[in-house]
Specification:
This protein is mainly alpha-helical. Helices cover about 70% and strands about 5% of the residues. Strands 1-2 form a two-stranded antiparallel ribbon. Helix 2 runs antiparallel to helix 3, helix 5 crosses helix 6 and helix 9 packs parallel to helix 14.
């Protein structure tokens, strides 16, 4: 029971962090049709900005200022980069954002170095919140869950209950009509892209001290974020949420379970294994193959349901 509880709580925290990072990418793609390869790099910048700001004026100021700085960078990328690339098609947009990945990574190495920086959990949240089955649950994990839940609620209210949300959704499908009604459609797209980058920066602020803040953190999180977006369905925020929680649970369970696929069936009297290649694969510890599981699941979902869990097939 202790292992199960720890697995569920850790998987939930990791899944919610994945959702915070993937939600910005989903919003950008669903509203603008741009698959931003540099999204994980904005997450990395958010963590480094938070480290620097918290060193001078504290974590709580960094929680506000670092995402805003990432949002401003996103606005600059859209205005002076993507807007000019848009006329040349999606290939130009992909190449442009792909090039930004290397620029941001080298800039981080030049400013902060190649080693991990000591970005720590704030002292005000560095204590056990409660104990369950002999396992302490840190208060910072609860804070991460709270921030992610508030972010999800804010996005839903913004898109469904406010005038700017209606304008954003209308600009996606009927830009000419929205422009005729007097709204600045390019500015709407800038707001959407900046908002997605702001969410990525926020994920970096609360995830950088939970994991590690180093120049390779974008490479570590970038692929899994794209897996989450594809698995949930391109452009589906609800699918992104379900896929994030599912991937978080699967990866955490695979790491924490001390056994293999064959050992899971052993209590039921089913003997798997043997001297064959398949038998050797079934006896490999799950912790060793846990980084591979999300990509296997992505291949399976693309094979059986190409549009993802909740993605809508385009006409």
């Amino acid at each position: 029971m202790q292992l199960l509880t720890d697995t569920l709580l850790s998987g939930l925290v990791y899944g919610m962090l994945l959702f915070m990072l993937a939600s910005g990418l989903t919003l950008i793609f669903s509203m603008m049709g741009v698959l931003n390869f540099a999204h994980a790099s904005i997450y990395m910048l958010g963590a480094y900005f938070a480290f620097t700001i918290s060193h001078y004026i504290g974590f709580w100021a960094a929680l506000v200022l670092a995402p805003l700085a990432c949002g401003l960078i996103g606005a600059a990328i859209e205005v002076w980069g993507l807007r000019r690339c848009h006329a040349n098609g999606h290939i130009a947009e992909l190449l442009f954002t792909f090039g930004l990945v290397f620029i941001f990574q080298r800039a981080v190495m030049m400013v902060w170095g190649t080693l991990a920086v000591p970005y720590q959990v704030p002292a005000s949240l560095n204590f056990p919140l409660f104990q369950l089955y002999g396992q302490n649950f840190p208060a910072y994990r609860a804070f991460m869950l709270l921030v992610t839940a508030l972010m999800l609620l804010s996005i839903w209210l913004l898109l469904k209950k406010t005038r700017i949300g209606l304008i954003i959704q209308a600009a996606l499908t009927h830009p000419d009509m929205v422009s005729a009604l007097g709204h600045d459609v390019p500015r709407v797209f800038t707001i959407v892209f900046a908002g997605g980058c702001l969410l990525a920066g926020l994920a970096g602020v609360i995830g950088g001290n939970y994991f590690s803040t180093d120049s390779g953190m974008a490479d570590a999180m970038g692929p899994i974020v794209f897996v989450v977006v594809v698995f949930g369905g391109l452009g589906s925020l609800a699918g992104c949420f379900v896929a994030s929680i599912f991937m978080g649970m699967v990866q955490t369970a695979a790491v924490m379970v001390n056994g293999s696929i064959a050992s899971l069936f052993a209590p039921f009297g089913i003997a798997l294994g043997g001297d064959s290649l398949l038998g050797e694969i079934l006896t490999i510890p799950l912790a060793r193959v846990s980084p591979l599981l999300p990509y296997v699941l992505m291949v399976l979902i693309l094979f059986f349901r190409p549009r993802g869990l909740m993605g809508a097939r385009d006409a």
